[in-house]
Amino acid sequence: MVKKLLKGRVGAVRGMAPTKERPENHVSMKLGEGWHRRNYLTEILLPSLFSQREKPEPKVLPEIPGGAVGITWIGHASFLIRTSKSAVLIDPNWARWLKVVKRLREPGLSVHQLPSIDLVLVSHAHFDHLDKKSLRAVAAEQPIVVPEHVGDLVHGLGFDRVHELKRWEHLDFGVPDDVLRITLTPAHHWGARVLHDDHRGFGGFVIEHAGKTVFHCGDSAWFEGFAEIGERWRIDAALLPIGAYETPSGRDVHMNPEEALRAFLDLKAQCMVPMHYGAFRLGFESMGEPPDRLLGEARNLGLESRLRMLDEGETLVL
Question: Which of 15, 85, 159, 191 could form a disulfide with 144 if both were Cys (CB 3.0 to 4.6 A apart)?
Fold first, then answer.
């Protein structure tokens, strides 16, 4: 089946003229107070080299009936979103290493287990979200959607079109009886891949299909923008990051579990799927701390029944 981009308010194809201005809601680049008191190299990186990689239990992808949406957590921030006729990847990453950071838990799906992928979304240029080797592995002359000023990083990887979106811009993708609307939403983060390119955009994605709405946050610290997103959409499932909050730099760039639940309430979503934990030691917190803290706070707030704690490779069907 041939998928096509339908008419919509879309960003430029094949890149936009770059500016050097930082995007709105860019976090501070100033090192946090006391950042030098702990040593990420000796506490986290070196010990992780001797840790065995864990492998999730194998899972089978279920069939998705017409009108439904399937959400499969691959691991870290990577998700497979499926309808009965389309398959979308968000932030695909099968890397075993992020430069010197070892992956400590394997993805829940291999590239070879994927269905035919119709569209790829990348939330920002950080190495744990934009992994070029993984993108090359899934590229098959389909479109890819990125925030503005990120397109140059994915040119030449095997995608037939590179669409850059500004915040609140959308595109409609699919066939007339199976349309997906993709909207880039704000976040409170930063998009630089190296030190000198902090003009690159970043954000999350809202995916709408047949009355169902899924929100993938990308990376973000808590900010008031979650409430605006919640006012614009009735969100069925919010995919929210809960790890890497004790950053080596001491900067406030990710949400901790309690802040993720605050964002969930701001979004007024029906259910929450946690992500961005369990694969890479990107912060000082232990691998098991984020889900434990999340469950504890959810119980305190009476929200435990609205959490969907997926194993890698597991699918939630809306």
Answer: 159
Q: Are 23 and 188 in contact (CB under 8 A)?
A: no
Bridge partners of residue 163, in order along the sequence: 13, 145
- 230 CB-near residues (< 8 Å, 6+ apart): 266, 267, 268, 269
**Per-residue model confidence as pLDDT tens digits over 249-292:** 666 677 999 999 999 999 999 999 999 999 988 887 888 999 99
CA 291, 297, 300, 302 dihedral sign is: negative
Q: How far is CA 300 from CA 268, 271, 295, in A?
A: 18, 16, 9
What is the reported pLDDT for 11? 47
Residue 7 has pLDDT above 60, yes or no: no
Assigned fold of 64-317: Metallo-beta-lactamase; Chain A (3.60.15)
Q: For the segment 144-157, what is each residue's pLDDT rounded down to a tens digit? A: 999 999 999 999 99
Consecutive H or E run containing 173 = strand 170-175
Q: How far apart are CA 58 and CA 108, in angstroms?
A: 7
115: its two tokens: 């269905």
